[in-house]
Structure formats: C-alpha cells, structure tokens
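Fig. S4 source data, part A: sequence.
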Amino acid sequence: MQDKPHEECGVFGIYDLENLDVAHTTYTALYSLQHRGQESCGIAVNDDGIIRMHKDLGLVPDVFQRTTLNELGNGQIAIGHVRYSTTGGNTRENAQPLVMKYAKGTIALAHNGNLLNAHDLCKGLEQTGAIFQCTSDTEVMAYIVAQKRLCTGSIEEAVLETMKTIRGAYSTVLISPQKLIAARDPQGFRPLCMGKIGKSIVFASETCALDSIGATFERDVEPGEIIVVEDGQIKSIRDLCGQQHAHCIFEYIYFARADSFIGGASVHMARKAAGRCLAKEYPVKADLVIGVPDSGIDAALGYAEESGIPYGLGFVKNRYIGRTFIQPTQTQRAQAVRLKLNALKSAVEGKRIVMVDDSIVRGTTSSHIVEMLRESGATEVHVRISSPPFINPCYFGTDIDSRENLIACKMSVPEIQKTISANSLGYLRVEDLAHIVPGLKDGYCAGCFTGHYAIDVPKEVPKNRFEAKINKKKSTNKKMGSAQNTLTDKAVCWSNITGGCTD
C-alpha cells in the first residue's frame, strides 16, 4: 500500500484508414498513458475479422518487443490498455483487453473505471451458466455485451443496452469484426477523447496519447455517448446523454499528465490554479517554493506566482522508480521514498521552504519528505496540499485507502501538521475545487473529499466477486464454531494465492 491514491487504467483505440501500423501506433499511445497503470498492459488487433491479442504483467516496453508487435498482424482496428487493479487482483488473467468468442463472433474490450453492480450482475450470469475466467468487472461487462448482442440487431445496440444495465464508471473501447466502438458512462467519471490521424480515427483516455502519435484532437466523447466507427464512417448514439456530469476532479489534481486537456481544460493550468488558491488562503513568509514531483510541481508554480516567493527545484527524482515501487515494512518504505526522491541540498539549505504536494493519504510519505528537507538544511518547512483532505473512499476507479487508514479521518489538520513535523499545513478548500477548472462548477465528482457522490453507492463494494463470496461464507461459518472459522480462514488464504473461488 502506497501513500498515494492510484488510478485504474488507460485505454486507446484506433480505426486505420491511412495504412498505419496499428499495433505500433497503439504501443506508442500506451507508452504515453503508462502513468495511469503500471501493473499490466495489452493490445488486441483486428486483422480482417481475426482478433489477435497479447497481454501480460509489466510495463509497456517490457511486455511488448518488436517481434511481439509484428506477430499481432497488420490489422485495421486495434485497442490497447494499461492497468492498475482497483477491482480484481493483479494477475495476467485480469490484464486487458479481454477477448471473448461467442455465438456472433469475437469481441475485445478494454475498460477504465469501476462498476458498482458488478457483483450482482455476475451472480445473475453465473446462474445462467456463465463461467468466468478472471475477477475483474470488465469481464462482467463483456459478458453482458455478448448476451445483449444475441437479442439485438447490432453490436452498438448491445453496448447501449449494456449501459442501461451497468452502474458506475466506465470509459471503454471495444472492437468487433467490423467496428471500433468507444463509450463513456452517463456521468463521465473517467476521461475519453477522440482524435484523427488524417482520416484514421483514434480514441484515448488523455490527449497526451494523441500528441504522441501525431493525432489531432477532435473532441471529448460526451458522457453517455457511444461512438461507432465502421468503414471510416462515424456514428454517434446519444440516448443516454444529458444526465448530471461528474468528472473526477482528482484527474486534474493528480492522475492525468500535466500536458493533457480533459473536458477542454488544461491539467497544467488547473494545478497552477490550485496553487494560487493555496497562496491566497495560506500565505507565509518563506524563501523558496518547491513542488513534490510530479503533479506537485505545477501547483508549486501557481503558489510562487501568486505569492511572489521564488520557485525553485527542491528535489531530484529517480525516473526509474515507478508509482508501484512498494516495500512492506515502515523502514523499507522510508528507504523507498529516499530512493525515489532526494532533496537538493544546495537549493534548500538555510532556507524557509514552502513544499507543495498533491495529497496526503496516510501521512507516512509526507513525514519522510519533510524530514529529508530538514536533514538537507531547511530551516522551516511549510506544507501546502493542492487537494482537500481525503475522508472517504472512491467507488469509481480510484484506489483510495479505507477510512481507517486515511490520516484525515483520524486527526485534525493541526494534528496532521504535528505528525509530519511541518511548521504549518494548509489544504485546498473544498469550495475552491470549483475554481481550479473553469466550466466544471456543477459537473465534477469530489466524493472522496465530501462524501457526496454523483450516484448512489453501496455501503461496501467488494474488490471482486470471490471476496464477496468469502465474506458471506465467513459470516455464515461464524455461527459454526472456531474450528470451522479456522478452516474458512485457510480457504480465504488459498483463494488469495490462486485468485480463484474456494467452492
């Protein structure tokens, strides 16, 4: 468990009309989306109706080599995915895209988000004979699409009917033998945009992926919209559009790359605006403003511009340590922080420092970073956080720790300040969230900060359906004595190891 939230994944899709190499183009785009997920990745290519797929655990350049990409064929349609698991474990089976053969042919699907009703839908499918191969909610979505396709006249109608059935966050790309489809949930929790390379059509989680492949940005996929590409023609289905929007505000604060535009707004400028709000709300006499890489840097620039305090480089980051570098013990976590970041002593020594970061989850990393600055000679360290305190979990594709591990649920701001050994501490106010992104005043989700969600959420969402089954068994077996409980606990451990059901 890291002291930062995690996004779930990034998606990409291409319908080629320019004789492009779709596998290599998808590879390049996924490289640009790597920040959204580092656990696994995959690419599926439609080569004249035959869908070939390769996926595995690891980073994009580790999973794909030139020979691997060549083996995917010279198709016209492709989709790709990078994943961090918030629903379902980190196994190769859960890597995406998911490819499914059914009565009408083959489909491949990649998904960013989290379905709230995946467990209930899975139960219903299993009762009709469905056999699941993995534990992610994406497989549930794929099954429903295949099921609906048997009762509808086209794959896009099946996607529409599926969207009426599922609840939660989903930005998804899907390929059938003839079509590329992109769809976004009616609230638009997760980003998805459309671009072009000449006449070729592409979709991506962020515009930075379009830039990397030389595509021009056309527009965002609207919340609730389905876009179908076939024979180079684009069709938009808007039956579910027009509902209350709920773009994840934390995409702007942390998840998205600074050079991306989401909802027409610059992520870089949104972070600078957050820094300016912090400077107005929490002024302090200091000599230097520094940002914690990477997303804290933009907010630090905004703080410096508003306050008039010079901005400077305060940390050197090891670029070869990703967001997933985790160690199990407290001592090893502290070493990991130092391996990832090192204070620039020549810049901070003898100075009063304003340190801007994007968030505090458990507080352990912030404490280590403040200590690092003091050891490098900083005389004062004033911490400014470009998001409000986390007090609630997220149900829409962000892996935020449980309430018992969130430091803001256990301590007041002065207590957190003391815990991380800062001279002062200031969080972005909830009311300032509406000011950092123009046009999102009534259209963003900040449930992790406020507890108010755009749609109703259950009291508890299992990580996967097996977890739900095990929890139910444990509840039942509790009445049967300690011996049976011991047996159940062993079954839980075995299920965690195998990733399978203990039935």
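Fig. S4 source data, part B ends here. The first strand starts at residue 6 and ends at 7.
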